[in-house]
Amino acid sequence: MKQPIERLYSQHTAIMKHSFIREILKVTKGVPGMISFAGGLPSPDSFPRELLARLFSQVILEEGADVLQYGASDGDRFFKQALKAFEEVPYLSDEEIMITVGSTNGIYYFTRTLIDPGDTIVCEAPGFPGSVTAMESCGARLAGIEMDELGMIPDQLRDTLRGLHDRKAAVKFIYVIPEFQNPSGRTMDLNRRREIIAIAAEFGIPILEDQPYRELRYSGERILTLWELARTEFDDPQLVTIAKSFSKILGPGLRLGFAAGPPEMIGPMVKWAQKTTVSPDCATQRVAARFIEAGHMRRHIDWIIDLYRPRRDAMLNALADCMPDGVTWTQPEGGMFVWVTLPPEINADDLFERAIQHKVAFIPGSKFYPAGIVRTNELRLNFSYSDEKLIREGVSRLAGLL
Questions:
Q1: pLDDT tens per residue across span 61-94
Q2: Are 92 and 263 in contact (CB under 8 A)?
Q3: Residue 262 in 3-state DSSP?
Q4: What is d(CA 172, CA 188) in angstroms, rounded to the nearest whole number?
Q5: Contact, 127 vs 281, CB < 8 A?
Q6: Can you give the residue range of the structural domain that contains 392?
Q7: At 366, which CATH number?
Q8: 224 contacts 193 by C-beta, under 8 angstroms
């Protein structure tokens, strides 16, 4: 008698769920008349296709013998030099940087380095499901810290850490997206960043700072990262590791990001890379290096900002014009998302089913909370993918349903 292969699944595989966001993209993609605010997708208009095509051709023809060969697991040294120049961190050693296959890849390696099954990670609530999934796949438990308009609430963070310490829980790190947070669009101000770092130092717990949207600022002033603050004001380069991505700048299909932190963290993360991805894409790294060295990167980011700023403004204006009383939303200074809070009696999961029938899609807020926290009257809207006209029409449809 044939035995089902499922009986051999590992415990993690058996309980692993599909990503709701990835599944909804399959449902909405290609549907005539569908306006989707669901994905965290950059606009295809933002991809520098012709320039990248020329650079890929040049790299393959001129350096193919090198870049078509196996590469270093920690990343291409030419790309690292270009990256340090672009990020204005020439003082970093190569041992403090690793190139990753997108930033979630770096988050996974960081988690793998620190987490044993049953260990705890403290994170924002709501938070990014992609990171939560990567962490849970390593056997981590998530303790969610609720947010105000400036991000993770310090008093709740301290109380939670004390409670976990009293229960002898092994808390391995704090995970935050301080800039244009996914899903809420909120940004930590400078004082809040200092408070979070001070609490982490007090408890001796490292921070993983996720910064995939940092370059996409449309208004307000640029703020020092937690990574920078830890190294300068707190004189502790071991406290914060940062993960960044080129997915929102050059294109997510290139799968290019990096992590920077102390060699004591980066070294073991590279060991995990050696066992999984082997190395990041060698040709893509060299193309990105040329893109930076030729001065294209900053000009291209400025162009993307000019593309996305009117889309953010269009969404905020449409919400203000169309939404009924009792509905509120964040005012993001950058990034890709607006977080909408509905009156308590409205269930965003039910609204989602009705919205799909009316050909407008979003992600219900309940999908962004770790286990133990239930919120059903919130939702996330993406404004980077659709143009201004579609944004207004989609918000109007949602408002009509409400």
A1: 999 999 999 999 999 999 999 999 999 999 999 9
A2: no
A3: coil
A4: 22
A5: no
A6: 5-48+298-401
A7: 3.90.1150.10
A8: yes
